[in-house]
Amino acid sequence: MERSQLAPVQDPETGKLSLPPMVSAPADKDAAVEAAAKLAAQTGDKDLIRALLLYQFAYRGTDNATPAKALGQVFLEQPNAFLEVYKSLDTVMQVKLITYLEFGYKAVTHGKNKSIRKYKLTQKKLDALSGSMMNAGR
Question: Which of 8, 21, 112, 121 has the fewest CB atoms within 10 Å, i.e. the most exposed one?
Answer without folding.
Answer: 21
